[in-house]
Amino acid sequence: MHQRVVSREGTLTRVGAVVDPLLEGREALTQGRWQDARRAFERALTDRETAPALEGLGIALRWLGESGSMFRAMTRSYRLYRRASDRRSAARIALQLALGEVYFRMEPAVALGWLARAERLLDGLEPTPERALTMCIRANTALVLDKDLDGALATARQAQQHARAAGAFDMEMMALAIEGLALVCAGEVQRGMRLLDEATAAAVGGEVEDPDAISTTCCALIDACKRVRDYNRASQWCDQVQEFCERWSDQLTFAACRAHYADVLIWRGAWADAEAQLVGNLGPLAAIHRLRVADSLVRLAELRRRQGRLTDAADLLAQAEGHWLAPLVSAELALDRGEPQQASQAAERYLRRVPPELVTERTGGLELLVRSSVQTGELAAARAASGELAAVADRVGTAPVRASAALAAGVLAAAEQRPEDARRLLEDAVDLFGTSEGRYEAARARQELGAVLAGLGQERAAAHELRAAASELSALGAAASTGADGARLSRREVEVLRLVARGRSNQEIAAELFLSTRTVERHVSNIYDKIGAAGKSARAAAASYALVARIA
To answer: Coil, helix or strand for 514?
Structure first.
């Protein structure tokens, strides 16, 4: 007969008897020793199949990333629990199968089927942690898949009440994190972040034991930080989460966290470190599910775009098709290639998917729509997008979002021939990006500011901004200028552009290059088209392009 002896620390010990492998496996699960748990549950299944042993084995296999074996074990456990008329345990397995369908197979319809099965099995029972978990999953689904902000908030709050009634602290913290994320999405950043900080402190501090609750809570916080571009807070929590994941051998959360952390590194200009994170993440993500690889591919595409490797970026983006970030990267890529109409369409496509009430999700799309619409001459569309973005910035309040709004408004003001307004707005953008460590974004804003200053005749100030931008872009390993790789200037066009940057008129360029004035005008027009310059400031923009691209 098996005997269990429990020490003061609650660990199983062997004193003159063999420890029950089922109990040994459960103890290993509580400590994140997934391989030890697997071996123990396999021993427990040697004589006969039991639902608890299959359940424990399935959990261990899930966290080891062995999805096929996990589904087989969990399905058999579910059937045995149903035969025993153990509704609560069967519901618990149905929830595990629902989560597995999301994590490994990315089959939301099947996942929702298992979720509905769990809800029906729990009908009529007293408050349970399982019922609280069903509510958490419903709230998360409402927010992430359905974009139903009100539904997500209401269900998350209901889940907290149910979890407290059931004494399920883990589920209460998970629900608190989902509520916090929903509030951040609605623009109530301070309230949402307070809830998220509290829930995540409990998760990584040892108060929360359920791995799903820990994973969901941590991911919700980092997601919220990125939505409002609070990269300092995201970085601090990424360090905590990665340490936790290593301690618990949590491959699922660790892989997701690495993709998020790469966003922080890209923002801060640590591009070599970001690339290492993303490339190193491809294998683990592929092991979970091939579609998960898009989380790293789309971010690697953005990094390649910033580096001026536009062909590589396009290839990576094609592999990440369908990812929610893909339209934003596609729009940036189109602008780099001098295709503002395509950029506008991509930005609009992204924004159509995001309801207006989810304000923090709209920031990137709105900024892109302003810049692309200015280049296509659709100033009414640019004004509408800039106005909405300004309202988002006022509501969210973080420096990076305010910087994005200032940059967009500055670009619009320049297009509307309001150079003094443009100057002030772009100076604010440079300062705000700088204080929030957005090195690439600050350099891009300096480029715009330099063009405006050149148009105002402030040549020394313009040269200072443009040289600072060029120096920063060079230090980052970025393309010399947005569009540098996509412009594809001919040798003669480079010669003409160099003289434009030196302040020569078309007639002077014609004389110096032994060309007709008409030919020079045609070359200048082609240059404007290729680099996306337009309007009265086109010549100043071309001069700025030449300086930053080291043509001048």
So the answer is: coil
- pTM of the predicted structure, to 2 decimals: 0.77
pLDDT > 70? residue 19: yes
Please answer whether residues 260 and 226 qualify as being in contact, where contact means their C-beta atoms are separated by less than 8 angstroms. yes
Per residue in 23-35, pLDDT (tens digit) is 999 999 988 899 9
Distance CA 325, CA 305 (A): 14
Helix, strand or coil for residue 477?
Answer: coil
In which element (H, E) is residue 26 found? helix 21-30
- The pLDDT tens digits of the residues spanning 442-474 come to 999 998 998 888 888 887 888 888 888 888 988
**Structural tokens at position 171:** 């589920």
CB count, 10 Å around CB of 492?
14
Token readout for 381 is 């569309």
Burial 271-300 (b: 16+ CB within 10 A, else e): beebbebbeebbebbebbbeebbbbbbbbb
Specify whether the backbone of 503 is left (phi greater than 0), alpha (psi in -120 to 50) or beta.
left
* Exposed / middle / buried, residue 13 (Cβ in 10 Å: 0-12, 13-18, 19+): exposed
